[in-house]
Write a structure and sequence with these properties.
membrane; mainly alpha; two-stranded antiparallel sheet; about 75% helix; globular
Amino acid sequence: MARINQWNPENAEFWAKEGKRHATRNLWISVPSLMLAFIVWQIWSVVAVRLNDVGFQFTDSQLFTLAAIPGLVGATMRFVYTFAVGIVGGRNWTVISTALLLIPAIGIGMAVQDPGTPYSIMLLLAALCGLGGGNFSSSLSNISLFFPKKEKGTALGINGGLGNMGVSVVQFVTPLIITTGTFAALSGDGKLLKDGGQLWLQNAAFIWVIPIVLMTVIAFFGMDNLPGAKQSFSSQFAIVKRKHTWIMTYLYVATFGSFIGFSAAFPLLLKSQFPEHVSLAFLGAFIAAAARPFGGFISDKFGGAKVTAITLFAMGLGSLAVIYFIGQGSFAGFLISFLVLFLAAGTGSGSTFQMIPYIFPVKEAAPVLGFTAAFAAYGSFFIPKLFGWSINATGSYVTAFYVFIGFYVAAIVLNWLFYQSKRAEVTSFVTAKEPADRPKAAH
């Protein structure tokens, strides 16, 4: 790959002549790389469901912890990964971060074959899966550098939205691949189940090894390091002093944090409440990921604050509906209510990200996006842990949903006070006009 010596996507002639070609190539290599990162990040959400079926004897709390730990580590790694592109280059970091996914993928495949594997080893492997969670921040940071302002939204929507699909992919593929012995010669023998069937749980991890290797090689030869992409730590850190940074972080935690947290916990919830339907767990993450670009699109038309308010209200209603149908023992009602939650969370993820460029100056909007994304990823840890606490402390998951409702109500109030009311400090983006630098409001 020839080295790019100068890069100016805002120059129309340069963009048409060669910029778009390079940017598009890097985008379509970044997408599957990020998808694999999400797959590894969320693999425990489905592996944990079947551990006890193959001989392990973990408690519900321990299983929810295994599903939650990747979220904790992944969210923390996002703070580090945000700056990695500027330090080592976008291509270089994509190669490194994708190759690192091999460690948990191979490790899990080996560990689940032995029911005697200590819980501490499982926790370590779950933590290593957090490496995949960090990739979101570095991937979006890298791709944002390739495109002109007028196309950044679309490019980031494609990269982030399709990357998020990795959650639904792993939850759809895993139940299918672990029931076949096709790869037994390479991956090992299956475990005998109580009903007489067999389960090759190691396939859930081993199946991604070859794709990870392929994308590492493709990224090495097909992507580019852009000149002038270095980031200043001091300029990035300035956003922490902004009031609106923390408000938007809270709103994004309510939306994307719910999406990724529910995605991590949903398979275990289904296994607990309606075990015969656990194969449908992928639907939630799929709907949420598909809704994200839609959320950004309708926010451009009607305003991000309005869309965010509607989605938060829908999430509150969805939570109430889940509480009701858990009490009724109705699977159809439970599933539909949860899918409403996922749909609203995915849409809200897009609408909150649409708001940020209207609130902050251009030079601060990008680090704010990474900062809020890092905090929101903690939802992947705290939501499964909250469900685990709820079932242990009260014998029901209902208490956790009341906590969520309180969180959403507070988010609705914040959104109204600062971005919707007549006294709101920032309201221009409600009309979906072109974003402008608003340094006064951002402070």
